[in-house]
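Same chain as my last thread, 280 residues:
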Amino acid sequence: MSGQTFIFCLGATKAGTSWLFDYLYGHRECHFPAVKELHYFDALEQGNGAWHRKEAQARLDRARAEKPTAWQHRLVADLERWLATFDGKTRDDAAYLNYVQEGGEKARVIGDFTPAYGLLKEKTLATMAALTDKVRFVYLMRDPVDRIWSNIRMVAGAGGQTALDAKVDGVLNGTADNILDRSNYRRTLNRLTRAIPREALHIEFYERLFTPAAIERLCAFLGIVPQPAPFDRMVHQSVKAALPMGQRAQLQAALKPQYNFVEKFMGELPSEWTQKMVSA
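reply #2:
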C-alpha cells in the first residue's frame, strides 16, 4: 500500500456518488472493484451484514442473468469474490484491503464507494482513517430539500402523487427517519472532523460536481491527473415530479438546522441552494 491513496466516498443517497464512481472507475490512475457499496464498515458497526449479503447475492443473480459483456463479467467476478471474502460479520481488514486492491497494485488510488458510511459513528470513522498510511475521505452534499425530494421520488415515485405526499409527510413528522438521516450533514461533518484531519477530507457540492473545476479540485486532492468527464451523463435518475412550493417551504423549514450548519461550516451557502429557497 506504500504510496497508494485509499479513498472512502461518503455521501447522501442522490448526491452524485454513482456518477463520481463511474468517473473514477474509468480513470487510468485509479482502481476500484466493480461492486459499488461494499458495506463493510456499516455491516460491522450495525450488525446488518446478513441483509447486505442477501442484497449482494440478489445483485449477483441479476448480473448472471443479464447479457454477458466485459462489464458484466467483471461485476459477476467481483461480487462472487466479495461474498467469499466477507461473511457479513467477521472483521478482517487485511482481507478487505486485499479485495479492494486486487488487480490494482499499480494504481495511485483505490477505495470504497459506500455512501451509507456517512451515517457511521466517530469511532468507526477513526478506524477507517487508520486503515492504511494514506486514507482520504470524499463527502458529497446536495441541497437538503432537493436531495430529500430526489430520494422520495426514487423510493415512491412509481406510486404516484399519493405515495409522494405520504413520504413528504413522513419526513415532516419524523417517521421517515432513514430519508432524513441522509441529509444530516451537521452530524456527519462533526463526526468526520473529530475523527480525521481536516486535510484528509474533500467536500464537494452536488450542484457543482459536474464541472471541470470540481473535477480538477478532486483530482488535485487525490494526486491524480484530471481526465475528461461525461458531465451530461445521468446515473440512476429518479422519476420526474415537481415539488409543490408549499411542500418545499415546509421541508426547508424542517431542514433549517442543516442549512445553518453548512453555512457556518463552509463560510457560506452555495448560490445553487439559496436561489431555490422559498421566502419565509
